[in-house]
Amino acid sequence: TGVQTCALPILEYMAAGLPVIATEVGGNREALGESGILVPPGDAHAIADHLCQLAAAELRDRYSYAALQAVKRFDLGVAENRMGELYATYAQWVARRRPQGLQAQPA
Fold first, then answer.
1. What integer is the mean pLDDT of 5-9?
2. CA–CA distance from 101 to each of 80, 97, 104 (Å)?
3. C-alpha span between 32 and 21 (Å, rounded)
4. Which of 24, 34, 31 is nearest to 4 (CA)?
């Protein structure tokens, strides 16, 4: 279809500290958050305008830094820690609801 719907390349650019201009399709909004620039699909003029704006080092540096910070949300270590927290919370919830005297069965 010519439409990029997978945000993986965007995450790779962000991890490299590159300022990102992307079309507003698929998961691009979620991936970029406020750390990049979204334009309507097919709007070449908007892309060109934003490219010209990124010629300013201050703006380019601000988006680069924001990208490096934002991409950390998608780090595997962060996801692993969060899943561990969720499982621990669930285990506590189950333990509180277990009837008195009932022991957990070994796996």
1. 79
2. 33, 12, 10
3. 9
4. 24
CB 67 within 8 A of CB 9: no
pTM of structure: 0.68
Residues of the chain above pLDDT 70, percent: 87
Please spell the DSSP secondary structure of the chain, one letter per residue.
Answer: -------HHHHHHHHTT---EEES-TTHHHHHTTSSEEE-TT-HHHHHHHHHHTTSHHHHHHHHHHHHHHGGGG-HHHHHHHHHHHHHHHHHHHHHHSPTTPPPPP-
Cβ(68)–Cβ(19) below 8 Å: no
